[in-house]
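Weekly structure sync, notes
Attendees: PL (lead), two postdocs, one rotation student
Agenda item 3: pending single-chain targets
PL asked that the sequence for the first pending target be pasted directly into the notes so everyone works from the same version. It is reproduced below exactly as submitted, 583 residues in total.
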Amino acid sequence: MADMLIKNGTIVDGTGAERRAGDVRIQGDRIVEIGQDLDPREGEEQFDATGCIVAPGFIEAHTHYDATMWWQADLDPLPGIGATTIITGNCGFTAAPMSDDKDAQLEMVKIFSFFEDIPLEPFLKHVPWDWRTWSEYKASVKEKIRLPLNNAAYVGHIAIRMAAMGLDAWKRPATAEERKVMASMLDDALANGALGLSTNLLDHDGENRPIPTLVADDEEFSALFDVLDRYPNSTFQCIIDVALMRDTGPAQTDRMAKLLKGRKLRTQLTGAIPTVAYQKYLLQPMRERVEQMRKDGIDVWPGYAHVPLTGQLSLYKSLIFAQSNDYVWHEVVLADGAEAKEKLLRDPEWRARARESWDTQCYPQSPMNNPGMLLLTKLGSDNGAGPFCTLLEYAEELGLHRSDAMAEWLLRNGVLSTVRMAPFDMDDEVVVDMIRDPKTVGNITDSGAHLQMLCGGGENLVYLTKYVRDQKAISLEEAVHSMTGKLANHFHLTDIGEVKTGRRADLVVFDFAEIEQHDMEKVYDVTDGKGGITWRYTRKPAPMKLTLVNGEATFRNGAYTGAKPGAFLEPAAVFEPTAIAAE
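Predicted structure, written out during the meeting:
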């Protein structure tokens, strides 16, 4: 690590304030001086930022690197797109706490593996699982992993439930004694620097079972909220289903509003405001609910998507079939090996059930009921056989049901092939409203999960390319603030998110005219836990001219440096909001 003077840049400081010309001096891991025409000092490296933006490093507000960082610690492609901090422990899925019961331990790992589309074997081979409490997990991470980005983490309600109740967590509400155990586990996490508690009121598993947190009763939530109330710097994250699968979000929002009223608990309600065009029928009812919560004194921050869900159908690791209510095609995902998968795809009885499933069971918004949006691509083909068109076109060409046509294409192109879903149209006006709302959580991308779908990597750039440069719907200052200072404020992370003296030297330097969100590309570098290598999707760098984490370059002049200076961040007890956040 060398002291550095970034010269001649245009500073967009992360507060929403207007850009200004200036230099930034860094000593060690901190910003120590900001001004114009600063004189270089002996031994100080100079970095010329002429024509470039100097901004705080981008915060990836919703990732699932909890497990994958143990075997893919470079976090590609995040350094090349300006990310300097990841938030982990989202959606109630965390690696800690852990039950003493071996069956319950494995079940928790399976839950994480299924819902985040990550192969089970690497979990079991590469993650040490040498902890029971969240504080022990944090200590293990700090000792054994070096990352190119900072990490701050929630503790997950699903993990807490499984640790306290074992396999019964799937089946029933907790007893009074079990609630005390859960409260103690949460207290351990918060006392040792967890951001707060994440829960999930959305998902069902591959057998259509409601996840354990959907079984939790109001008494359990109240007991956990009592613990959170003792930590004024903590955050409660709740994932809900608004126009995604079962439309339970409105009812769950009403439930949380009742339980949270009278508390000062900061609440991230992820999915509360739908931003995809087909979800518009729930937009106004959900806006009214959020507004009422705010009138009632609840510190609610809707988490929103600025990009449509990435859809990639795979026969090896995909929860899309199950989450579309298609448990017949999910049988192929569960079948062990290529031969077993091919046998099912050819079986007339299975094909009949698959057609019936698509026609009568799948949700209207699912990929299966939108074959014109399912893309049969050369990138997705394992052998290049083709044809390359939409599934609707291929079904019409063959004169087959769309399910049969997809089976035929996968047999022809190989069962390692994937089918890509064209993105749903976004309601850009709503996205802009969410960006400008001072209490929202954006840059939610699912990085680190769904590796064969490519959630996350590079999607932060859409703020800059689509909404600033192309549409001119927001200013560059607003885009940067939405990915930096506003998020740091939300999570009570007081030493990142702004270009300000005393803050961590987490900075990005980029030429605004050069940056792009590149298309997906395959790389074969993912361990399968069985001694082999499989593939994932990634993207080329934006690129950034320079990405600094704690004063050390992780990406520079078009290339990754290999440096891993990331720290485990903790929320501060009191946050001094920026002017724009306080308005």
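Discussion points:
- Residues 574-583 have pLDDT under 50 and may be disordered.
- The radius of gyration is 24 Å.
Action: rotation student to compare against the earlier draft before next sync.
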